[in-house]
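Form 12-C: Joint structure prediction
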Amino acid sequence: DIKMTQSPSSMYASLGERVTITCKASQDIKSYLSWYQQKPWKSPKTLIYYATSLADGVPSRFSGSGSGQDYSLTISSLESDDTATYYCLQHGESPYTFGGGTKLEIK
Amino acid sequence: QVQLKQSGPGLVQPSQSLSITCTVSGFSLTSYGVHWVRQSPGKGLEWLGVIWSGGSTDYNAAFISRLSISKDNSKSQVFFKMNSLQANDTAIYYCASGAWFAYWGQGTLVTVSA
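Section 2 - Result
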């Protein structure tokens, strides 16, 4: 199985700050990497797909980058509504696997 | 507008089975697969399996002996069944669809308890 190592597991950041979350796959996943935002008691919401493509309706302050084994999600200027837990998912090889999550809170 | 609506019980007795139905709208089950994912406090998000548009299935090996996914294209419904539930199967169960899990159901909170 492909292991997805996500970091950090939790973080605090200030409004307006640039935030980066990373996911490292145990092998090349060829950009089959998505990012999701989840708020308490809500279903995950897709932010980024195929590593760099912004999902419909997602603010442009979110962006994704990476290739091979290494990927990142960046929020260019943190807003209060961005408080949530973020997950990566590799869907290139079964069994599909998620990162452990990053809980992002406002300082 | 794509929607996935889940229906199923919230409480399951130990050793009993769990059945959840995912009813989709806004797309055809002959076009996209439907995945099942669960979320528990101890293990985060865990992919369980998928039924593809053509009807074939792929299961996480950890659950292959007790998991079954089927569908009725004409009713736009996908059926999830997991057998022999134990306390550590307590979780929120989701259906999700689209090439990159673009769309998610609302989740079904399942508690395994006597």
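Section 3 - Comments
The radius of gyration of chain A is 13 Å. Chain A has a mean pLDDT of 97.
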